[in-house]
């Protein structure tokens, strides 16, 4: 029988705890669930009130990997859901609002991906995201160089940026914004990407065309579309090892000289949170959200 665990008064089925999800390290599903339970204090605020897309990998990253956007079959009735507009019609998606919901979702074995808007205001973006994706032989080292340039440009517009690793090979820049639609934020983000390419043509590309990207950093501004989602801070990624999308300090970005310096795994997160707290906590403070420049 599947063991039933009580989490904050909710009965949650947690299955196959000994199953090895990451053969390269022997990391098990039980260890994955323990990570999410122990990281809930910093993860949940970034999930709360945001419709979640699940990138599931129930047999590990070497098995089938697939997106689940609609409420999965068998979802407990106590899990919060919300109707979300899509181009193809309304859909119902999960909101991970509490520890019990987080543990239920984690048992599905998933990456967490969230929109740049809250369910209560689906027409207003509250975050801007720039996904810096290096094309080999470029690495996160070159992403850091681009991130520092973008940080200064954002600051000149009164917008404070924060950084996290993608948990794969790149870097994400995030900032809290207010009073703008997804289209306006996307247009602003595209303008930043274009200017970055003009300033650093040998290093940056703003177009997705694959043939343009080797050796350069693609500044993906399109993640700001209201229909798109981005890996949530602190989510474990479906990679060869259990790497985590990890908030980093600007000092770490400035001092990055090798890709390994900004590669963080599950075991690295608790000490970092103890030392730094949640480096992305300012994103959750509405009073710090900035208006886009006219």
Would you mind describing this structure in some detail?
By secondary structure, the chain is α+β, with helices and mostly antiparallel strands. It is built from 6 helices and 17 strands. It has helices at 29-47, 99-106, 140-156, 182-199, 250-254, 266-276, and strands at 4-7, 10-13, 20-22, 27-28, 51-56, 66-68, 81-84, 91-95, 110-114, 125-134, 162-165, 171-180, 204-205, 217-220, 230-231, 247-248, 290-291. The strands form 4 sheets. Strands 10, 11, 12, 13, 14, 16 and 17 form a 7-stranded mixed β-sheet that branches. The longest helix is centred in the first third of the chain and has 19 residues, at 29-47. The radius of gyration is 19 Å and the shape is globular.
In terms of per-residue confidence, which ranges show pLDDT below 50 for 5 or more consecutive residues?
A: none
Distance between the termini: 60 Å
Rg: 19 Å
Instruction: Please report the number of helical segments.
Output: 6
- Classification by helices and strands: alpha+beta
Tell the overall outline. Answer: globular
Main pleated sheet: 7 strands, mixed
Number of strands: 17
User: Would you tell me the overall average pLDDT?
Assistant: 95
Task: Sketch the topology as an H/E string, one letter per element.
Answer: EEEEHEEEEHEEHEEHEEEEHHE
Strand content: 15-25%
Brief synopsis:
Helix content is 27%, strand content 24%. Strands 10, 11, 12, 13, 14, 16 and 17 form a seven-stranded mixed beta sheet that branches. Strands 5, 6, 7, 8, 9 and 15 form a six-stranded antiparallel beta sheet that branches.
């Amino acid at each position: 029988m599947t063991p039933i665990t009580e989490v904050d008064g909710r009965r949650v089925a947690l299955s196959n705890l000994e199953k090895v999800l990451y053969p390269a390290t022997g990391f098990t599903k039980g260890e994955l669930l323990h990570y999410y339970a122990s990281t809930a204090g910093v993860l949940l605020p970034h999930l709360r009130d945001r419709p979640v897309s699940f990138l599931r990998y129930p047999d590990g990253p070497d098995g089938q990997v697939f997106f689940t956007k609609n409420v999965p079959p068998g979802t407990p009735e106590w899990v919060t859901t919300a109707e979300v507009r899509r181009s193809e019609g309304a859909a119902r998606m999960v909101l991970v609002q509490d520890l019990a919901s987080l543990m239920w979702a984690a048992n599905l074995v998933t990456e967490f991906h969230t929109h740049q808007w809250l369910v209560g205001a689906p027409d207003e973006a509250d975050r801007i995201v720039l996904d810096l994706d290096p094309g080999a032989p470029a690495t996160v080292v070159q992403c850091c160089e681009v991130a520092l340039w973008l940080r200064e440009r954002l600051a000149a517009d009164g917008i404070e940026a924060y950084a996290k690793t993608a948990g794969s090979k790149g870097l994400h820049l995030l900032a809290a914004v207010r009073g703008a639609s997804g289209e306006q934020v996307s247009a602003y983000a595209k303008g930043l990407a274009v200017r970055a390419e003009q300033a650093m043509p040998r290093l940056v590309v703003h177009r997705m065309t694959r043939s343009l990207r080797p050796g350069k950093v693609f500044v993906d501004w399109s993640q700001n579309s209201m229909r798109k989602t981005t890996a949530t801070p602190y989510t474990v990624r479906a990679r060869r090892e259990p790497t985590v999308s990890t908030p980093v300090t600007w000092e770490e970005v400035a001092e990055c000289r090798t890709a390994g310096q900004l590669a963080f795994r599950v075991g690295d997160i608790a000490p970092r949170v103890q030392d730094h707290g949640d480096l992305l906590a300012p994103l959750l403070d509405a009073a710090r959200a900035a208006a886009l420049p006219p």
